[in-house]
Design goal:
Layout: E1 2-12, E2 21-24, E3 33-38, H1 44-56, H2 66-76, E4 86-95, E5 98-110, E6 115-123, E7 126-127, H3 129-133, H4 135-142, H5 148-151, E8 152-154, H6 167-179, H7 182-201, H8 207-261, H9 263-267, H10 269-294, H11 299-302, H12 306-342, H13 348-368, H14 381-417, H15 422-477, H16 482-524, E9 533-536, E10 543-546, H17 560-577, E11 584-587, H18 595-606, E12 613-617, H19 625-631, E13 634-643, E14 648-653, H20 657-660
Parallel strand pairs: 3-12, 3-13, 8-11, 11-12
Antiparallel strand pairs: 1-2, 1-4, 4-5, 5-6, 6-7, 9-10, 13-14
């Protein structure tokens, strides 16, 4: 088991980054998140691309061709750059208790007619040439390139994973990679190679054998070509199906809108405008009621909050002070009369003792009554509190009435605005006809693709049967060596067993996937009673959602934000299953989510999915309460600032979130 942690990322002369920018990425165990905030176009997506490219090169983006990779880097290179574009990533890798620091550097020499990439991998500060040469194999052992998009992904595009056409294939491929089933496929290919070698060794000098071998090779080549074409047509079918669904949804939305705002609304225009006038009058009356409530002289005291309690305590203290002062003055007059009345009755010494005792008592009483008075004498606070509560209740009721009147007026204004003009109805019909034509065109294109796919699938089945028959013929007719014949038969049985084992292993994991995705999805969802189970079919890996009644809930019924949460739930379930601990990087993860779902995603996904999570967000995604929630789990926050004068971006540290935001 390996644990990978990003330490620093350096970027120079790529995208909006001209001068070298270094982003610290290390995290504390209790705060796994690093937040990077920026305006659109400042470089968030460039950072995501740089992380993918520095690790995997052209394999990072789905194994694109070399020309496309070159075009990507050329597109990112700055024209005003001084020096060569480069990316450096320093990371920590822990494996079986051993810890080492690696630095991966990719640099490009780009000229008009040449494009060269230099990769250097340093281990603990020294360039390791062997590790550099074998870097792809080394990294694939930790995280295969085909799984990279599950760990480093664009939050705005992740909703596409929830497409019911493409989700089963993605789930199956990801599960195969996570379970290491690729080894089964490799073993099956090796058995095919052994089969071919055995056939080549048998009757190698026979003309009939050579003819049969050539025929088998031709059939296998044709089968591979047909299978590739079928795969491409399947992708085209999914793409055209998405286009058709989009066209249908656009047509249905427009038709519904036309229904709401069409001729019926036009005929009811006078009634709607009268209702709007009445609603506007109710708003005016409610506003006057609020003004009347604000005129109550007791209302300001309702907004004092804790100050009112302080005032009551101070009033009580000063009342005691005034009472003590009055008592002191009365006792002083009494003591003066007493001394005067007994001055001739007792000796002077005794008189002095009495005078001193009385003076000491009076001094103590005077000290307790000498506190400074800051309030004028007013009625007791308890006497005016009922008036304050009455004023507050009246004001709140007036505000509530005003809010309701405003909401009603907004609804009537929308209805008035929706009343079409006569010429708008004609335009509406023309636009509806255009949208219907788009649906028809997409349906025709889908039908064409499906026909082509059906034809090529029949061709694949035919070629598979011919290949199988050819292999059987070669096994029977060219079995000069019994060992080769047995090897062929054993290889065929082994492939059948491996295929059956693979399917059963995938089917067994489908139940686990259902449970894991359901747990993740229900934890993220605000509507706790909307979904009961997310079911993954063991045979097809088709994903269906069951509501609390056991009925299937079409994915089209989910909002865009809910589909994004479903896709993230799938990723979270797969990521948690992966034994190697790898950082998760998400670009623009919260744009489509409301505040409740954002907070849930922070607590249930970002704070738990990995030991290190890099969140690349816009300035509006993470603010206010959402930023406060994110800060509880963030080690650092960085800002990307774009300078219009310099035409480039720079990365600046925010104050450490543990200091700037209270946990």
């Amino acid at each position: 088991m390996s644990k990978v942690t990003f330490l620093t990322l350096g970027v120079q002369n790529l995208g909006p980054f001209r001068d070298r920018q270094t982003v610290p990425l290390s995290v504390r165990a209790s705060k796994p998140v690093v937040l990077v905030k920026a305006l659109n176009g400042s470089g968030k997506t460039t950072l995501l691309t740089c992380l993918q490219v520095v690790l995997y090169g052209n394999k990072a983006l789905g194994g694109i061709r070399g020309s496309e990779y070159e075009q990507l880097i050329r597109g990112l290179q700055r024209n005003d750059a001084i020096g060569q574009p480069c990316i450096e990533l320093e990371l920590s890798i822990e494996t079986n208790g051993e810890h080492e620091i690696l630095r991966i550097a990719r640099e490009w020499s780009i000229k008009r007619d040449t494009f060269q990439e230099q990769l250097a991998v340093s281990r603990n500060g020294q360039v390791d040439f062997q590790l550099t040469q074998n870097w792809e194999d080394y990294l694939d052992d930790i995280l295969p390139a085909e799984l990279l998009q599950l760990f480093l992904f664009d939050g705005e595009k992740i909703e596409a994973l929830a497409n019911p056409k493409t989700l089963p294939d993605m789930l199956r491929r990801a599960t195969e990679a996570f379970l290491g089933i690729g080894g089964i496929d490799t073993l099956a290919k090796d058995l095919n190679a052994v089969e071919r070698r055995s056939l080549l060794q048998a009757r190698s000098s026979s003309g009939d054998y050579e003819t049969a071998k050539a025929e088998l090779q031709t059939l296998e080549s044709g089968l591979a070509e047909a299978a590739d074409k079928a795969a491409m047509l399947k992708q085209s079918e999914a793409h055209v199906t998405n286009l058709l669904e989009t066209a249908r949804q656009a047509y249905e939305r427009f038709a519904a809108e036309a229904q709401r705002s069409g001729l019926a609304a036009y005929e009811k225009a006078a009634e709607v405008r009268a209702a709007e006038h009445a609603a506007r009058k109710r708003v005016g009356d409610a506003e006057q009621a609020v003004c009347d409530a604000l005129a109550d002289p007791h209302l300001p005291f309702a907004s004092l909050g804790g100050l009112w309690g302080s005032y009551k305590a101070l009033w009580a203290t000063e009342r005691e002070t005034r009472s003590g002062l009055q008592l002191y003055e009365a006792i002083a007059r009494r003591d003066a009369r007493l001394i005067k009345s007994i001055s001739n009755l007792i000796p002077q010494t005794s008189l002095n003792i009495v005078s001193e005792a009385l003076a000491s008592d009076a001094a103590q009483l005077k000290a307790s009554a000498s506190r400074q008075l800051v309030l004028v004498e007013t009625p007791p606070p308890d006497a005016i509190e009922p008036f304050i509560e009455t004023a507050k209740t009246r004001y709140e009721a007036a505000l509530q009435t005003l809010e309701g009147a405003k909401l009603e007026l907004e609804g009537m204004e929308r209805q008035v605005a929706a009343i079409p003009r006569g010429e708008q109805l004609a335009d509406m019909l023309v636009e509806m006809k255009g949208k219907a034509a788009a649906v028809s065109k997409a349906e025709a294109e889908l039908e064409t693709v499906q026909q082509q796919l059906a034809e090529i699938q029949r061709s694949v089945q035919h070629l598979e049967a011919r290949v199988s028959a050819s292999k059987v013929r070669m096994t029977k007719e060219f079995q000069g060596q019994a060992l080769d014949s047995k090897a062929l038969a054993a290889g065929q049985r082994s492939k059948e067993v491996l295929a059956l084992f693979k399917e059963r292993l995938l089917a067994a994991k489908a139940e686990w996937l259902s449970s894991a995705i359901t747990a993740e999805f229900t934890a993220l969802m605000r509507k706790k009673r909307l979904v009961k189970t997310v079911h993954v079919d063991p045979a097809t890996y088709q994903v269906s959602i069951l509501d609390t009644t056991g009925s299937e809930l079409p994915m089209a019924r989910l909002s865009a934000g809910e589909r994004q949460l479903l896709a993230i739930s799938v990723l979270s379930a797969l990521i948690r299953k992966r034994k190697s601990r790898f950082p998760v990087v998400v670009d623009t993860p919260l744009a489509r989510l409301d505040r409740t779902h954002r907070s849930s995603l922070i607590r249930q996904f970002f704070a738990k999915v990995s030991h290190q999570v890099l969140v690349l967000s816009t300035d509006e995604e993470v603010e206010g309460d959402v930023f406060t929630e994110m800060a509880k789990h963030a080690s650092h926050t960085h800002l990307i600032i774009f300078s219009d004068e310099e035409r480039c971006s720079s990365v600046r540290p925010w104050a450490d979130t543990t200091e700037s935001v209270a946990p």
